[in-house]
Design goal:
The protein has 410 residues and is an alpha+beta fold. The chain has helices spanning 12-33, 41-56, 70-81, 83-95, 102-123, 129-159, 163-193, 197-231, 243-259, 274-300, 325-341, 368-383, and strands spanning 59-62, 65-67, 264-271, 306-311, 314-319, 344-346, 349-351, 355-362, 389-393, 401-404.
């Protein structure tokens, strides 16, 4: 089933609305109540750092979902530090999500801040002793669950991406988290009220270390599985991923962008006059050029990028976190100049090699096969003169064209 195109601008008003709501409620509370906090600077800083780290611990739930344990940290900070402390801890989670696009970070950071503020309000309700700790934990978790369910519902409606199935799965995960979080938070809260602030810090740190170890174990298992799968998706000559692996990566990249991550650049590189290289230096010479090209480009790309051999003398780069056509063009020019800067060598012969590059931006608004087709059209235009870069320029709906950029002389 082809990936569903999604307008990346969808949900912008929700993201901005959540952030403004968090600022408004915290600001009004601060002006009206002028609250302080009983937290020491050390403990408050530790809790903020814990919320930041917790947001970076991603436990995979499926190929398109994950869980981060930041919510219990935000709720706990609000319970013991008050509404403002909870709101600040929630806002910190947006900083702990560096891979997310600004809309996702703004939306979930604002939503977490509101949940932390609500937990702080619950913590102000008079209730003492172990029963009070359980009551506070249960009420705070219930508020966080309700706010998150409503907030996610608005986000899914705004984004219109598989909202029913994703929403139900999210509710299930949040419900399981709530069941586990209530007794844990109650114990931490009672320990804090009994004068065990350091115990709270050590317990939170221990839980995060355990989660981090679980995450690392899962990551290593996935990496081992991916290595095995890669053997069936690798070009035998160059060792680069083949066309099958490329198509799978394009679908995954599109799904990540639709979920809110940054756009992805798609670059198609074609060796100029490769038939002449084969004619002059034989098939072995051509193979040397192909292998050296892959090695040279691989060393220049990031670990998060993919370099694949699509077939013959054509290669494709899938580059993550490319926010604009200008950034895409800079990367394409860098790779083009890298190829032509130093001649290739085969059996003592010096072989000058250049590549033409066509590129397009995978921003979630267009299906991956359409983006690849646009990159192919840009490559065809680049091949007219050879050794040049053409980037498909994203235009408003109904106004699509390709911009031709001048060749930079190395």
């Amino acid at each position: 089933m082809p990936a569903e195109p999604v307008d990346p601008a969808r949900g912008t008003w929700v993201a901005i609305g959540y952030a403004l709501t968090a600022v408004a409620v915290a600001g009004c509370w601060g002006v009206a109540m002028q609250p302080g906090t009983s937290l020491t600077p050390f403990l408050f800083t530790t809790l903020l750092a814990t919320a930041f780290v917790a947001e970076r611990i991603a436990l995979p739930l499926s190929h398109r979902g994950w869980y981060t344990p930041s919510t219990p940290v935000v709720v706990f900070t609000g319970l013991i530090g008050g509404p403002i402390a909870g709101a600040v801890a929630g806002a910190v989670t947006a900083v702990g999500d560096p891979e997310g696009a600004w809309r996702r970070r703004l939306a979930f950071g604002g939503l977490d801040a509101v949940r932390g503020f609500a937990a702080g309000l619950v913590g102000l309700v008079p209730a003492a002793g172990p029963t009070g700790a359980v009551l506070h934990a249960a009420l705070a978790v219930a508020c966080a669950f309700a706010l998150n369910a409503g907030g996610l519902r608005l986000i899914h409606q705004a984004r219109a991406v598989e909202q029913a199935r994703v929403f139900r799965r999210g509710l299930l995960v949040d419900g399981l988290e709530a069941i586990v979080a209530v007794p844990v938070l109650a114990l931490l809260l009672q320990g804090y009220r009994s004068g065990g602030a350091m115990l709270v810090v050590l317990t939170a740190a221990g839980l995060l270390v355990a989660l981090w170890l679980a995450t690392e174990t899962a990551r290593r298992n996935r990496a081992a599985l991916q290595r095995e799968q890669l053997l069936a998706r690798t070009d035998p000559l160059t060792g680069a991923p083949n066309r099958r692996a490329l198509e799978e990566e394009l679908r995954r990249a599109h799904a990540r962008v639709v979920r809110g991550e940054r756009p992805v650049g798609l670059l198609v590189l074609d060796i100029d006059r490769f038939k002449q290289i084969n004619s002059r230096h034989g098939w072995d010479g051509g193979d040397v050029v192909l292998r050296e090209l892959v090695d040279r480009l691989s060393r220049a790309l990031r670990d998060t990028d993919l370099l694949a051999r699509r077939g013959g003398e054509e290669f494709v780069v899938v580059a993550s976190s490319i926010d604009s056509a200008a950034a895409l063009r800079r990367l394409a020019e860098q790779l083009r100049l890298l190829v032509r800067s130093i001649p290739f060598g085969a059996d003592g012969a010096v072989i000058p090699v250049t590549v033409s590059v066509g590129a397009a931006l995978l921003d979630g608004a267009t299906a991956p096969d359409t983006v690849e087709r646009r990159a192919n059209l840009a490559l065809a235009e680049a091949k007219h003169a050879g050794d040049r870069v053409v980037v498909w320029n994203q235009r408003p709906a109904g106004v699509e064209r390709r911009d031709r950029f001048p060749v930079l002389i190395a």
